[in-house]
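Handout, section B. The chain below has 263 residues.
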Amino acid sequence: MLPHVLAQCNCEERREVGNSGNSSYSLRPGKSSPLTLVVIIAEENPIEPEPFLELEEETEGAPASSLYLAPNSCQGCCLEAFDKHHPCYCNAHCPEFGNCCEDFESLCGHEGCSHSSDAINKEELQSVSEKIYRADTNKARKEDIVLNSQNCILPSETRDQVDHCPEPLFTYVNKKLFSKPTYTAFINLLNNYQRATGRGEHFTAQELAEQDTFLREIMKTDVMKELYGFLHQQNCYSSGQEFVSDLRNMWFGLYSRSKEERD
């Protein structure tokens, strides 16, 4: 299996009202929402991929879905797993079967960080992770947030419909955090998602502008500059524009959760 460098965190907002009438908000897996910036994964013992035809058999009956808005293109999906519903492919086997997308050679045919010759080792991952952590001067400090954890309940009590923690989760939050450009841009995204599954979703001009603002603001931070510099050095991206395009697809690309709707 080839190493991956970026992964997404798909989450959505969830409102919970306690017995006392107080409300609290949390995030749970679901919609494509820009919550976590980067997850870096490496494998010490790469495993050879299964034969192409076996992959086709495993995905028999899979619903048609795609994170990307251009199914006939390899833009943002080089080496993506086989899916029989796709009109063309961008994986290592498509040249053999003659079913590559037209832009496969230009977008995926060159050496890059998805190839074994450019594999990122454990030491490099640890080094860049520490650099990114030190570069994050924008994060909340310990004194900026005070949590009220209240009661610790057993797994068996999680479905009993009783609010064991009726008080607000946050005792104190420094409101100056919300005036930071990246925080403000992120908060503006939180009402842009349809929570219910099976309903087609379309972004308005304002929502697209808010996505652009968020991407622009985070790319100004030392964290993202450090990350892009590392990935560029590893031949993962040839330009900042290509990197931002991948982030946009991972965080804001629509995919199907139910009824084959891009929800």
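Note. The two ends are 30 Å apart (CA to CA). Compare this with the example in section A.
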